[in-house]
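Translate structure to sequence.
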């Protein structure tokens, strides 16, 4: 295996990991911003208030996107084992 193949494999692994993590992290970011805005408007300064809605939203999105996420991981694994 030469250096260019190793770099391509590493790049593809990072892109796949980013593609898998992005939807869940994006929902966590959006829910966190909404909760922060609600806290700022209502002047509630509880730090733990945003934790539960973010966790619930992120787990919910992960469950909803589980077939798509599993398909992406399976495709990546097939490409790695096929040597393509």
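Result:
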């Amino acid at each position: 295996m030469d250096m260019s193949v190793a770099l391509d494999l590493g790049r593809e692994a990072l892109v796949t990991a980013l593609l898998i993590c992005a939807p869940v992290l994006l929902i966590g970011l959006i829910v966190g911003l909404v909760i922060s805005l609600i806290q700022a408007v209502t002047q509630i300064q509880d730090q733990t208030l945003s934790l539960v809605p973010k966790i619930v939203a992120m787990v919910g999105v992960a469950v909803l996107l589980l077939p798509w996420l599993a398909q992406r991981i399976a495709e990546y694994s097939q490409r790695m084992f096929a040597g393509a």
